[in-house]
Each structure stands twice: as structure tokens, then as C-alpha cells.
Design brief:
With 153 residues, the chain is α+β, with helices and mostly antiparallel strands. It has one domain: Beta-Lactamase (2-Layer Sandwich), CATH 3.30.450. 37% of the residues lie in helices and 27% in strands. It contains four helices and six strands. Strands 3-2-1-6-5-4 form a six-stranded antiparallel β-sheet, sandwiched between helices. Helix 1 runs parallel beside helix 4. The longest helix has 16 residues.
């Protein structure tokens, strides 16, 4: 099965998996597990959640090696995507000003903001151990994945 078909299947699987469940942690955990299971050539997939009290992103459910726990608003790829509320597709993380290296093996990254009804929840962060891992097609499909997720939050 081609990668595009697999990614569309994952979006449908996410929708079916989350139907009827409203718990944030449970839904984010299953979402990161689906990505970890079905995306090739990645080394981390998970979420950073906005902590209104501390005004920073805090590590949420993920698949991968241990990670940075807190990221300041605007810092690194995750902080920039959250602050600017736009997807960041970074072909070479070492060329991104202020990149935060939680895992030295990461070479490329995509970060998608998670917002529902104007409420900024956090970001979906996916890292890969190879440069140029994420394409524009990946961006579209992963933004669709985030949209399916947001419908269930």
C-alpha cells in the first residue's frame, strides 16, 4: 500500500479510535501511538501542551526517547509553531535558529499547532533521524490528522 493511502487510513483509524472518548490524555496517547506505529523513518511523535499558569509548553503523551519537558513560548520549532499558530516543516533542524535538541539523532521535524475553538491546546511534534523526511504532502495529511484529533478533544 502506498504511503498516502496508509496516512489516509491512519486518519480514519484515529477517528474510529477516538469516537466516544473525550479524555485528553487518552486521546493524545492513542494518537501518538498511531503515528509511531504507522509513520516510517521517525524517531519521536507526540505532544507538548500549553500550561497557562507557567506560560510554556509542557511535555504530553508521546512515542520515542525521553524528551525535553518544558519549552518556552516561541522557543525552538515547537515554541515557534505554537506562538505563530502555523505548521512548521523543517527539513534540517540544525539550520533552524534556536532549535532545541532534545534528541541528537533528530535531523528534520514537523510541528502542527493544536487549537480548538480559539483555545490553544499545544502542538503535535514529529521528529525524524533523516533530513528532508517530511514533504508538503505529509504536511497536508498530518494537518488532517490534527483536525480529526481536534474534533474529538
Amino acid at each position: 500500500m502506498e504511503q498516502t493511502a496508509i496516512k489516509h487510513m491512519v486518519n480514519k483509524q484515529l477517528d474510529a479510535l477516538l469516537t466516544g472518548e473525550k479524555n485528553l490524555i487518552a486521546n493524545l496517547s492513542n494518537a501518538s501511538a498511531l503515528l509511531g506505529e504507522h509513520l516510517n523513518d521517525i524517531n519521536w511523535a507526540g505532544f507538548y501542551l500549553w500550561d497557562e499558569t507557567d506560560q510554556e509548553l509542557v511535555l504530553g503523551p508521546f512515542q520515542g526517547k525521553v524528551a525535553c519537558v518544558r519549552i518556552k513560548n516561541g522557543a525552538g520549532v515547537c515554541g515557534a509553531a505554537f506562538k505563530n499558530q502555523e505548521t512548521y516543516l523543517v527539513p534540517d533542524v540544525h539550520a533552524f535558529p534556536g532549535h532545541i535538541a532534545c534528541d541528537a539523532a533528530s535531523e528534520s521535524e514537523i510541528v502542527i499547532p493544536i487549537t480548538k475553538n480559539g483555545n490553544q491546546i499545544g502542538v503535535l511534534d514529529i521528529d525524524a533521524p533523516i533530513k528532508n523526511r517530511f514533504s508538503e504532502e505529509d504536511k497536508v495529511l498530518l494537518e488532517e490528522f490534527a483536525t480529526v484529533l481536534i474534533e474529538h478533544l
